[in-house]
UniProtKB/TrEMBL annotation:
<comment type="similarity">
    <text>Belongs to the thiolase-like superfamily. Beta-ketoacyl-ACP synthases family.</text>
</comment>
<dbReference type="GO" id="GO:0005886">
    <property type="term" value="C:plasma membrane"/>
</dbReference>
<protein>
    <recommendedName>
        <fullName>Nodulation protein E</fullName>
    </recommendedName>
</protein>
<keyword id="KW-0812">Transmembrane</keyword>
<dbReference type="GO" id="GO:0006633">
    <property type="term" value="P:fatty acid biosynthetic process"/>
</dbReference>
<keyword id="KW-0997">Cell inner membrane</keyword>
<dbReference type="Pfam" id="PF00109">
    <property type="entry name" value="ketoacyl-synt"/>
</dbReference>
<keyword id="KW-0472">Membrane</keyword>
<comment type="function">
    <text>Proposed to synthesize NOD factor fatty acyl chain. Involved in the synthesis of a highly unsaturated fatty acid moiety, which forms part of a lipo-oligosaccharide that is responsible for host specificity.</text>
</comment>
<keyword id="KW-1133">Transmembrane helix</keyword>
<dbReference type="InterPro" id="IPR016039">
    <property type="entry name" value="Thiolase-like"/>
</dbReference>
<dbReference type="InterPro" id="IPR000794">
    <property type="entry name" value="Beta-ketoacyl_synthase"/>
</dbReference>
<dbReference type="Pfam" id="PF02801">
    <property type="entry name" value="Ketoacyl-synt_C"/>
</dbReference>
<dbReference type="InterPro" id="IPR014031">
    <property type="entry name" value="Ketoacyl_synth_C"/>
</dbReference>
<dbReference type="InterPro" id="IPR020841">
    <property type="entry name" value="PKS_Beta-ketoAc_synthase_dom"/>
</dbReference>
<keyword id="KW-0536">Nodulation</keyword>
<dbReference type="GO" id="GO:0004315">
    <property type="term" value="F:3-oxoacyl-[acyl-carrier-protein] synthase activity"/>
</dbReference>
Length: 411
Protein backbone atom coordinates (compact mmCIF):
# COMPACT_ATOMS: atom_id res chain seq x y z
CA UNK A 1 0.00 0.00 0.00
CA UNK A 2 1.36 3.41 -0.99
CA UNK A 3 1.10 6.71 0.84
CA UNK A 4 -0.80 9.47 -0.96
CA UNK A 5 0.46 13.05 -0.86
CA UNK A 6 -1.42 16.27 -1.57
CA UNK A 7 0.88 18.30 -3.82
CA UNK A 8 -1.44 20.83 -5.46
CA UNK A 9 -4.41 22.96 -4.42
CA UNK A 10 -6.74 25.19 -6.39
CA UNK A 11 -10.12 26.82 -5.88
CA UNK A 12 -12.64 29.33 -7.16
CA UNK A 13 -15.18 29.79 -4.39
CA UNK A 14 -17.07 32.38 -2.32
CA UNK A 15 -13.98 32.87 -0.15
CA UNK A 16 -11.69 33.77 -3.05
CA UNK A 17 -10.25 32.92 -6.43
CA UNK A 18 -7.24 30.98 -5.19
CA UNK A 19 -6.42 28.61 -2.36
CA UNK A 20 -4.41 31.02 -0.23
CA UNK A 21 -7.04 33.77 -0.43
CA UNK A 22 -9.78 31.27 0.46
CA UNK A 23 -7.83 30.02 3.47
CA UNK A 24 -7.05 33.54 4.75
CA UNK A 25 -10.69 34.61 4.48
CA UNK A 26 -11.79 31.43 6.27
CA UNK A 27 -9.20 32.12 8.99
CA UNK A 28 -10.41 35.71 9.37
CA UNK A 29 -14.08 34.69 9.29
CA UNK A 30 -14.86 36.83 6.26
CA UNK A 31 -18.07 35.64 4.68
CA UNK A 32 -18.60 35.12 0.96
CA UNK A 33 -22.37 34.91 1.40
CA UNK A 34 -24.21 37.74 -0.34
CA UNK A 35 -27.68 38.79 -1.49
CA UNK A 36 -28.65 37.81 -5.03
CA UNK A 37 -30.63 39.98 -7.43
CA UNK A 38 -34.25 39.51 -6.38
CA UNK A 39 -35.64 40.04 -9.89
CA UNK A 40 -33.37 37.49 -11.55
CA UNK A 41 -34.11 34.85 -8.94
CA UNK A 42 -37.78 35.83 -8.43
CA UNK A 43 -37.40 36.09 -4.70
CA UNK A 44 -36.96 38.97 -2.27
CA UNK A 45 -34.87 36.78 0.05
CA UNK A 46 -32.39 35.25 -2.38
CA UNK A 47 -28.96 34.77 -0.85
CA UNK A 48 -25.98 32.57 -1.68
CA UNK A 49 -22.26 32.05 -1.48
CA UNK A 50 -21.10 33.51 -4.79
CA UNK A 51 -17.79 33.08 -6.61
CA UNK A 52 -16.33 36.05 -8.44
CA UNK A 53 -15.39 34.48 -11.78
CA UNK A 54 -15.72 36.17 -15.18
CA UNK A 55 -15.44 33.47 -17.83
CA UNK A 56 -14.08 35.66 -20.63
CA UNK A 57 -11.05 36.45 -18.46
CA UNK A 58 -10.02 32.78 -18.60
CA UNK A 59 -11.32 31.32 -21.87
CA UNK A 60 -11.47 32.40 -25.49
CA UNK A 61 -14.99 33.14 -26.74
CA UNK A 62 -15.27 30.01 -28.90
CA UNK A 63 -14.45 27.71 -25.99
CA UNK A 64 -16.51 29.70 -23.51
CA UNK A 65 -19.63 29.04 -25.61
CA UNK A 66 -19.21 25.33 -24.79
CA UNK A 67 -18.62 25.70 -21.05
CA UNK A 68 -21.31 25.81 -18.38
CA UNK A 69 -20.21 27.78 -15.32
CA UNK A 70 -19.74 24.36 -13.71
CA UNK A 71 -16.89 23.53 -16.11
CA UNK A 72 -15.42 27.03 -15.96
CA UNK A 73 -14.98 26.72 -12.20
CA UNK A 74 -13.41 23.26 -12.53
CA UNK A 75 -10.90 24.26 -15.20
CA UNK A 76 -9.75 27.45 -13.46
CA UNK A 77 -9.34 25.63 -10.11
CA UNK A 78 -7.47 22.79 -11.83
CA UNK A 79 -5.05 25.19 -13.49
CA UNK A 80 -4.15 26.61 -10.09
CA UNK A 81 -3.83 23.15 -8.53
CA UNK A 82 -1.55 21.86 -11.29
CA UNK A 83 0.53 25.03 -11.19
CA UNK A 84 0.90 24.85 -7.40
CA UNK A 85 1.97 21.21 -7.66
CA UNK A 86 5.14 22.35 -9.40
CA UNK A 87 4.84 19.85 -12.23
CA UNK A 88 4.86 21.04 -15.82
CA UNK A 89 1.60 20.12 -17.51
CA UNK A 90 3.56 18.57 -20.38
CA UNK A 91 5.28 16.20 -17.94
CA UNK A 92 2.12 14.67 -16.54
CA UNK A 93 2.14 10.96 -17.28
CA UNK A 94 -1.05 10.89 -19.31
CA UNK A 95 -1.73 7.19 -18.79
CA UNK A 96 -0.89 7.14 -15.07
CA UNK A 97 -2.86 10.26 -14.09
CA UNK A 98 -6.60 10.10 -13.49
CA UNK A 99 -9.37 12.68 -13.18
CA UNK A 100 -11.94 12.25 -10.39
CA UNK A 101 -14.59 14.97 -10.13
CA UNK A 102 -17.74 15.22 -8.02
CA UNK A 103 -20.83 17.27 -8.77
CA UNK A 104 -24.30 16.99 -7.29
CA UNK A 105 -26.35 18.86 -9.88
CA UNK A 106 -24.40 19.11 -13.14
CA UNK A 107 -24.84 22.00 -15.56
CA UNK A 108 -28.00 23.44 -14.05
CA UNK A 109 -27.50 26.94 -15.46
CA UNK A 110 -27.39 25.67 -19.03
CA UNK A 111 -30.44 23.49 -18.51
CA UNK A 112 -32.34 26.30 -16.78
CA UNK A 113 -31.59 28.66 -19.67
CA UNK A 114 -32.72 26.01 -22.15
CA UNK A 115 -36.02 25.47 -20.36
CA UNK A 116 -36.65 29.21 -20.14
CA UNK A 117 -36.04 29.54 -23.88
CA UNK A 118 -38.23 26.55 -24.68
CA UNK A 119 -41.15 27.20 -22.33
CA UNK A 120 -40.87 30.84 -21.28
CA UNK A 121 -40.05 32.29 -24.70
CA UNK A 122 -41.95 29.58 -26.63
CA UNK A 123 -38.97 29.00 -28.89
CA UNK A 124 -38.38 25.76 -30.77
CA UNK A 125 -34.61 26.22 -30.70
CA UNK A 126 -32.16 26.09 -27.80
CA UNK A 127 -28.37 26.27 -27.72
CA UNK A 128 -26.78 23.52 -29.84
CA UNK A 129 -24.28 22.70 -27.08
CA UNK A 130 -26.92 22.32 -24.34
CA UNK A 131 -26.34 18.58 -23.87
CA UNK A 132 -22.55 18.94 -23.87
CA UNK A 133 -22.66 21.83 -21.40
CA UNK A 134 -25.23 20.31 -19.06
CA UNK A 135 -23.93 16.75 -18.75
CA UNK A 136 -22.48 15.84 -15.37
CA UNK A 137 -19.17 14.53 -16.73
CA UNK A 138 -18.37 17.67 -18.74
CA UNK A 139 -15.95 19.16 -16.14
CA UNK A 140 -13.93 15.94 -15.85
CA UNK A 141 -13.87 15.55 -19.63
CA UNK A 142 -12.65 19.11 -20.18
CA UNK A 143 -9.88 18.64 -17.60
CA UNK A 144 -8.75 15.44 -19.32
CA UNK A 145 -8.79 17.18 -22.70
CA UNK A 146 -6.86 20.22 -21.47
CA UNK A 147 -4.04 18.09 -20.03
CA UNK A 148 -4.15 15.16 -22.45
CA UNK A 149 -4.92 12.68 -19.65
CA UNK A 150 -6.02 9.29 -21.00
CA UNK A 151 -6.22 7.43 -17.68
CA UNK A 152 -9.53 7.03 -15.84
CA UNK A 153 -11.81 10.07 -16.14
CA UNK A 154 -14.62 9.58 -13.63
CA UNK A 155 -17.52 11.65 -12.34
CA UNK A 156 -19.23 11.00 -8.99
CA UNK A 157 -22.68 12.28 -8.10
CA UNK A 158 -23.68 11.46 -4.54
CA UNK A 159 -25.30 14.81 -3.76
CA UNK A 160 -23.46 16.71 -1.01
CA UNK A 161 -20.72 14.09 -0.56
CA UNK A 162 -19.78 13.94 -4.26
CA UNK A 163 -16.34 15.54 -4.15
CA UNK A 164 -15.31 13.78 -0.94
CA UNK A 165 -16.17 10.51 -2.70
CA UNK A 166 -14.13 11.65 -5.72
CA UNK A 167 -11.08 12.39 -3.56
CA UNK A 168 -11.51 9.14 -1.65
CA UNK A 169 -11.76 7.07 -4.82
CA UNK A 170 -8.68 8.78 -6.26
CA UNK A 171 -6.82 8.03 -3.02
CA UNK A 172 -7.84 4.38 -3.34
CA UNK A 173 -6.51 4.08 -6.91
CA UNK A 174 -3.17 5.66 -6.05
CA UNK A 175 -2.77 3.76 -2.78
CA UNK A 176 -3.24 0.45 -4.57
CA UNK A 177 -0.79 1.33 -7.36
CA UNK A 178 -3.25 1.83 -10.20
CA UNK A 179 -2.20 5.46 -10.71
CA UNK A 180 0.72 7.72 -9.85
CA UNK A 181 -1.25 10.99 -9.84
CA UNK A 182 -4.81 12.23 -9.82
CA UNK A 183 -6.65 15.50 -10.28
CA UNK A 184 -9.49 15.18 -7.78
CA UNK A 185 -12.18 17.43 -6.34
CA UNK A 186 -15.54 18.90 -7.16
CA UNK A 187 -17.44 21.67 -8.85
CA UNK A 188 -20.95 23.08 -8.57
CA UNK A 189 -22.88 25.94 -10.17
CA UNK A 190 -26.42 25.71 -8.77
CA UNK A 191 -27.28 29.40 -8.70
CA UNK A 192 -30.00 29.50 -11.34
CA UNK A 193 -33.58 30.59 -10.79
CA UNK A 194 -34.96 27.08 -11.27
CA UNK A 195 -32.43 25.48 -8.96
CA UNK A 196 -32.88 28.07 -6.23
CA UNK A 197 -36.67 27.73 -6.37
CA UNK A 198 -36.39 23.94 -6.21
CA UNK A 199 -34.27 24.11 -3.06
CA UNK A 200 -36.63 26.72 -1.65
CA UNK A 201 -39.52 24.28 -2.15
CA UNK A 202 -37.72 21.71 0.02
CA UNK A 203 -37.80 24.17 2.95
CA UNK A 204 -34.10 23.61 3.68
CA UNK A 205 -32.83 27.12 2.88
CA UNK A 206 -32.09 29.59 5.65
CA UNK A 207 -34.14 32.66 6.40
CA UNK A 208 -32.00 35.69 5.59
CA UNK A 209 -30.52 37.50 8.58
CA UNK A 210 -31.72 41.04 7.82
CA UNK A 211 -29.25 42.57 10.29
CA UNK A 212 -26.33 40.94 8.49
CA UNK A 213 -27.14 38.82 5.40
CA UNK A 214 -23.56 37.49 5.31
CA UNK A 215 -24.21 35.89 8.72
CA UNK A 216 -27.27 33.92 7.56
CA UNK A 217 -25.66 30.48 7.84
CA UNK A 218 -25.32 29.56 11.52
CA UNK A 219 -24.27 25.91 11.97
CA UNK A 220 -24.80 24.46 15.45
CA UNK A 221 -26.47 27.67 16.69
CA UNK A 222 -29.80 27.66 18.47
CA UNK A 223 -31.04 30.36 16.09
CA UNK A 224 -29.98 28.61 12.88
CA UNK A 225 -32.63 28.42 10.18
CA UNK A 226 -31.14 26.31 7.40
CA UNK A 227 -28.48 26.07 4.73
CA UNK A 228 -27.25 28.62 2.19
CA UNK A 229 -26.54 27.51 -1.38
CA UNK A 230 -23.16 28.33 -2.89
CA UNK A 231 -21.14 27.88 -6.07
CA UNK A 232 -17.53 27.15 -6.94
CA UNK A 233 -14.90 24.44 -7.30
CA UNK A 234 -11.96 23.03 -5.38
CA UNK A 235 -9.32 20.72 -6.84
CA UNK A 236 -6.45 18.76 -5.29
CA UNK A 237 -3.49 17.14 -7.01
CA UNK A 238 -2.82 13.79 -5.36
CA UNK A 239 0.16 11.56 -6.04
CA UNK A 240 1.97 8.64 -4.54
CA UNK A 241 4.47 9.69 -1.91
CA UNK A 242 7.34 8.09 -3.84
CA UNK A 243 6.41 9.92 -7.01
CA UNK A 244 6.16 13.26 -5.21
CA UNK A 245 9.50 12.85 -3.40
CA UNK A 246 11.26 11.64 -6.54
CA UNK A 247 10.38 14.82 -8.42
CA UNK A 248 11.13 17.08 -5.44
CA UNK A 249 7.52 18.23 -5.00
CA UNK A 250 6.41 20.40 -2.11
CA UNK A 251 3.92 18.38 -0.07
CA UNK A 252 0.93 20.17 1.48
CA UNK A 253 -0.38 17.17 3.37
CA UNK A 254 -1.42 13.54 3.10
CA UNK A 255 -4.66 11.64 2.60
CA UNK A 256 -4.51 8.75 5.06
CA UNK A 257 -7.88 7.09 4.62
CA UNK A 258 -11.44 7.21 3.39
CA UNK A 259 -14.66 5.78 4.76
CA UNK A 260 -17.96 5.51 2.89
CA UNK A 261 -21.33 4.15 4.04
CA UNK A 262 -24.98 4.48 3.06
CA UNK A 263 -27.84 5.15 5.48
CA UNK A 264 -30.61 3.20 3.64
CA UNK A 265 -33.19 4.79 5.89
CA UNK A 266 -34.69 7.91 4.32
CA UNK A 267 -33.64 9.94 1.30
CA UNK A 268 -33.40 13.22 3.22
CA UNK A 269 -33.25 12.24 6.89
CA UNK A 270 -29.65 11.65 8.10
CA UNK A 271 -28.69 8.67 10.25
CA UNK A 272 -26.55 8.81 13.37
CA UNK A 273 -25.45 5.22 12.84
CA UNK A 274 -24.62 5.76 9.15
CA UNK A 275 -22.50 8.84 9.80
CA UNK A 276 -20.70 7.27 12.76
CA UNK A 277 -19.97 4.12 10.76
CA UNK A 278 -18.40 6.21 7.97
CA UNK A 279 -16.07 7.85 10.49
CA UNK A 280 -15.17 4.47 11.94
CA UNK A 281 -14.55 3.05 8.46
CA UNK A 282 -12.20 5.96 7.76
CA UNK A 283 -10.24 5.21 10.95
CA UNK A 284 -9.80 1.61 9.84
CA UNK A 285 -8.77 2.53 6.28
CA UNK A 286 -6.24 5.04 7.61
CA UNK A 287 -4.96 2.65 10.27
CA UNK A 288 -5.41 5.48 12.78
CA UNK A 289 -7.20 5.06 16.13
CA UNK A 290 -9.80 7.70 17.09
CA UNK A 291 -7.48 8.84 19.87
CA UNK A 292 -5.09 10.26 17.24
CA UNK A 293 -7.64 12.56 15.56
CA UNK A 294 -6.80 16.14 16.59
CA UNK A 295 -9.62 18.03 14.87
CA UNK A 296 -12.74 17.61 12.72
CA UNK A 297 -14.16 19.55 9.83
CA UNK A 298 -17.92 19.14 10.24
CA UNK A 299 -20.41 18.83 7.40
CA UNK A 300 -22.24 21.52 9.41
CA UNK A 301 -24.93 22.76 7.03
CA UNK A 302 -26.94 24.77 9.54
CA UNK A 303 -30.09 22.68 9.20
CA UNK A 304 -31.75 21.36 12.33
CA UNK A 305 -31.55 17.71 11.23
CA UNK A 306 -27.93 17.80 10.10
CA UNK A 307 -26.48 19.61 13.10
CA UNK A 308 -28.19 17.44 15.69
CA UNK A 309 -27.41 14.21 13.83
CA UNK A 310 -23.77 15.05 13.18
CA UNK A 311 -23.24 16.04 16.81
CA UNK A 312 -24.67 12.70 17.95
CA UNK A 313 -22.69 10.79 15.30
CA UNK A 314 -19.40 12.33 16.42
CA UNK A 315 -20.21 11.24 19.98
CA UNK A 316 -21.05 7.74 18.74
CA UNK A 317 -17.76 7.51 16.83
CA UNK A 318 -15.48 9.00 19.50
CA UNK A 319 -17.24 8.31 22.79
CA UNK A 320 -16.39 10.63 25.67
CA UNK A 321 -13.40 11.97 23.74
CA UNK A 322 -15.78 13.79 21.38
CA UNK A 323 -15.89 16.63 23.91
CA UNK A 324 -12.11 17.11 23.63
CA UNK A 325 -11.93 17.47 19.84
CA UNK A 326 -12.19 20.95 18.25
CA UNK A 327 -14.64 21.08 15.34
CA UNK A 328 -14.84 23.65 12.52
CA UNK A 329 -17.86 24.30 10.27
CA UNK A 330 -16.71 26.59 7.47
CA UNK A 331 -20.04 26.51 5.59
CA UNK A 332 -20.92 29.33 7.98
CA UNK A 333 -19.00 31.67 5.65
CA UNK A 334 -18.78 29.95 2.26
CA UNK A 335 -22.21 28.32 2.20
CA UNK A 336 -23.03 24.88 0.86
CA UNK A 337 -21.40 24.14 -2.49
CA UNK A 338 -23.37 20.88 -2.58
CA UNK A 339 -21.20 18.38 -4.50
CA UNK A 340 -18.12 20.62 -4.30
CA UNK A 341 -18.30 21.33 -0.56
CA UNK A 342 -16.24 18.35 0.54
CA UNK A 343 -13.34 19.25 -1.74
CA UNK A 344 -13.30 22.88 -0.59
CA UNK A 345 -13.40 21.80 3.05
CA UNK A 346 -10.63 19.25 2.43
CA UNK A 347 -8.50 22.00 0.87
CA UNK A 348 -9.13 24.28 3.87
CA UNK A 349 -8.27 21.44 6.26
CA UNK A 350 -4.94 20.84 4.52
CA UNK A 351 -4.02 24.53 4.74
CA UNK A 352 -5.21 24.80 8.34
CA UNK A 353 -2.93 21.93 9.34
CA UNK A 354 -0.07 23.45 7.34
CA UNK A 355 -0.52 26.74 9.21
CA UNK A 356 -1.18 25.14 12.64
CA UNK A 357 -4.59 26.78 12.93
CA UNK A 358 -8.18 25.81 13.65
CA UNK A 359 -10.66 27.61 11.43
CA UNK A 360 -13.67 29.20 13.12
CA UNK A 361 -17.34 28.30 13.00
CA UNK A 362 -18.74 31.77 12.48
CA UNK A 363 -22.01 33.29 13.75
CA UNK A 364 -22.09 30.87 16.70
CA UNK A 365 -23.31 33.44 19.21
CA UNK A 366 -26.20 31.44 20.66
CA UNK A 367 -25.07 27.81 20.99
CA UNK A 368 -27.68 25.08 20.76
CA UNK A 369 -27.55 23.15 24.07
CA UNK A 370 -28.10 19.95 22.08
CA UNK A 371 -24.97 20.70 20.04
CA UNK A 372 -22.61 20.74 22.98
CA UNK A 373 -19.20 19.97 21.45
CA UNK A 374 -16.27 22.34 20.90
CA UNK A 375 -17.20 24.10 17.67
CA UNK A 376 -14.36 26.71 17.63
CA UNK A 377 -16.85 29.55 17.89
CA UNK A 378 -16.24 32.76 15.94
CA UNK A 379 -12.45 33.09 16.29
CA UNK A 380 -9.67 30.98 14.76
CA UNK A 381 -7.17 29.33 17.07
CA UNK A 382 -3.46 29.74 16.39
CA UNK A 383 -0.38 27.65 17.10
CA UNK A 384 -2.40 24.44 17.39
CA UNK A 385 -0.40 21.29 16.62
CA UNK A 386 -2.93 19.57 14.34
CA UNK A 387 -1.39 16.36 13.02
CA UNK A 388 -4.41 14.35 11.92
CA UNK A 389 -7.83 15.65 10.95
CA UNK A 390 -11.19 14.26 9.91
CA UNK A 391 -13.35 15.84 7.17
CA UNK A 392 -17.03 14.84 7.06
CA UNK A 393 -19.46 14.96 4.13
CA UNK A 394 -23.01 13.66 4.40
CA UNK A 395 -25.64 13.72 1.68
CA UNK A 396 -29.25 13.46 0.62
CA UNK A 397 -29.66 9.88 -0.53
CA UNK A 398 -27.66 8.74 2.47
CA UNK A 399 -24.10 8.54 1.11
CA UNK A 400 -21.71 9.37 3.96
CA UNK A 401 -18.06 10.00 3.06
CA UNK A 402 -15.21 10.81 5.44
CA UNK A 403 -11.54 11.58 4.80
CA UNK A 404 -8.65 11.25 7.25
CA UNK A 405 -5.97 13.86 6.53
CA UNK A 406 -2.49 14.34 7.96
CA UNK A 407 -0.21 17.34 8.08
CA UNK A 408 2.77 17.36 5.74
CA UNK A 409 5.78 15.36 6.86
CA UNK A 410 8.75 13.86 5.06
CA UNK A 411 8.92 10.81 7.32
Amino acid sequence: MRRVAVTGLGTVCPLGNNAEEAYLNAYRGRSGIRRLDSVTYRSSSSIAGTAQLIGIDHFDPAKLRMLDRLSQFALVATREAVSSSGIEASRLNQGRTGVFIGTGMGGTQTLDQGYQTLYGEHSDRIKPFTVLMGMYNAPAAWISIEYGLCGPCLTYSTACSSSTVAIGEAWWRIMHGGLDMAIAGGTEAPLSCGSLKAWEALHTLATVDDDDPSATCKPFSKNRSGMVLAEGAAILVLESWEHAVARGASIYGEVLGYGITTDVGHITRPSIEGQASAMKAAFVAANVPPSEINAINAHGTGTHANDLTETAAIKAAFGARAYEIPISATKSIHGHLLGASGALECLLCVLAMKNHTLLPTMHLDIPDPACDLDYVANVARDRVPIITMLSNSFAFGGTNAVLVLRAATRS
